[in-house]
Design goal:
alpha+beta, three-stranded antiparallel beta sheet
Length: 166
């Protein structure tokens, strides 16, 4: 199990395992073809336990953001998903698309830090596209009006965030 946690962490970075020794308990790491040296799984496991909030998975972050006070129907309506998709998200049987994560961010009224964390948990990030800049501007100004977001996206010839296609 420790090896799986370690590989999960590596999948979120530019690090890669180039050599494993001692029955997979010690690994040689590289970052962009630069040798970093060896690290043991035990050392990495201690680090992950100490800093576990930094590496939470999508479902954990999603459930924390939803909170206990919201009803399922309220959540589904706000994030533009049906009950089946919501259940798939919670049960870890679904890796949401980038647009779906952006819909969830707007629907749950995430702040910028929460949005970045939720995106990173499934391997995405904000970039400098018009779409991302529009969404970030709305988040930073606490404006979660989907009609306003979609109108600006259309104006800049971007695909609307809240549509049947997202």
């Amino acid at each position: 199990m420790q090896l799986e946690k370690f590989k999960h962490y590596l999948s979120k970075t530019n690090l890669k395992i180039v050599k494993q020794e001692h029955s997979n308990t010690k690994m040689k790491l590289e970052h962009e073809n630069e040798l970093l040296g060896f690290i043991t799984i035990e050392t990495m496991d201690k680090y992950l336990r100490k800093n576990s909030k930094q590496f939470e998975d999508f479902q954990t972050i999603f459930l924390r953001l939803v909170g206990p006070e919201r009803t399922n129907a309220d959540i589904w309506k706000n994030i533009n998903v049906d009950a089946n998709y919501h259940n798939k998200l919670i049960s870890k049987n679904e890796r949401p698309s980038r647009d779906k994560v952006l819909q969830i961010i707007i629907g749950l009224r995430c702040n910028l830090q929460e949005a970045e964390k939720l995106l990173a948990s499934v391997g995405y990030s904000f970039n400098n596209s018009f779409k991302d800049l529009i969404i970030k501007a709305h988040i930073e100004s606490n404006d979660y009006d989907i009609f306003s977001i979609n109108e600006l996206l259309k104006y800049y010839k971007e695909k609307p965030l809240f549509s049947d296609e997202a």
